[in-house]
Amino acid sequence: MSNSRFDLKRIIDLEKWDKLQDSLSLVSKMAILTVDYKGVPVSKHSHCQSFCQGVRQDAYLSQYCQKCDARGGLEAVRLNKPYIYLCHFNIIDIAIPIIIDNQYIGAIMAGQIKLRDADMPLLEQIVSRPSNAETDHKFKALKKDYQALPVLSYEEVTTIADMLFHLCTYIVEEAIDKNATIDMYKKALSLDTGQSSLESVNETERTYRNIQAIQQELSSALIETKVKKSASHAFLSSNPVLQPAFDYIYAHKNENFNLQEMAKQCHMSSSYFSRIFTKETGENFSVFVARLKIEWAKQLLETTDLSMNQISDELGFCDAGYFIKTFKKFETLTPAVYRNVYKHKVSK
Fold this sequence. Notes:
The chain is of the alpha+beta class and about 350 residues long. The protein folds into three domains: about 10-170, 2-Layer Sandwich (Beta-Lactamase); about 175-220; about 230-345, Arc Repressor Mutant, subunit A. The chain is about 55% helix and about 10% strand. It contains 15 helices and five strands. It has helices at about 10, 15-30, 50-55, 60-80, 135-140, 145, 155-190, 195-220, 245-250, 260-265, 270-280, 285-305, 310-315, 320-330, 335-345; strands spanning about 30-35, 85, 90-100, 105-115, 150. Strands 1, 2, 3, 4 and 5 form a five-stranded mixed beta sheet that branches. α10 (about 260-265) packs across α11 and α13 (about 310-315) packs across α14. The radius of gyration is 24 Å and the shape is globular.
């Protein structure tokens, strides 16, 4: 996304925020870290678990942790709600976006816990890591720490995620209002003392009106997303035999799917899968997947400042050139032009 008008480090008192974050971490039993909209940490890491500390201190394994954080935050922004996923060690993590007036300004990264439920829901392992002897040895060395990770039910996890989402958004909104009021007061005090009383009053009124105008602008900063609702939620097939394919597609957005692999997911022949898939969606498999990826791409263009190469990689295109060509085929304009048009509408 374009540079945010809201800067978390300027909006909130980080010393107080760290104390609040520590308290939330103790209550929720989750490690918590706050990052800005670029993914850069703005707070300390509250109660990071010993296992995760050990993993993040390893040069090879830490890169996978960073990939998990980046992709988790990206999904939370795209969905506009907390995103619960599995890290490369199958530990539960949550990316909780901080969104003010439809603008993403940062995220709360929470988790480092395991689930108690035997019937754990299907969660996406957002980054897969190839197993090798060195990493296996590292895991064995940290096995006791892994077993000591806090255990919660899935219901507890979702409740905590929603609580953090609403609480942090509320706190930041209040901080923005407070800062606006303080700025207005400072501007009023900084008026030239040589002005007449009437001039001072008039200038104060103008300052107040300017602050009101700024707040009004902030409250209507972004237009509603143009992305189709179906792009944010998994496709629910009327034909249950096809559902495994749709579930896989939505859970692995960074992969390049082919019909044969999806047919295997549904335990049927490629020809039969193709026939009933087209009947279900009204489009053949390749067109449906391409259109869906373009809808996801539009969301990333609207809500992030990722480059075309990064978006192409995130959505499993073979290269940026093919991504741009496919985007233009469906939208009749390039991704760069689409982003500029969207920003123009937002700025009105």
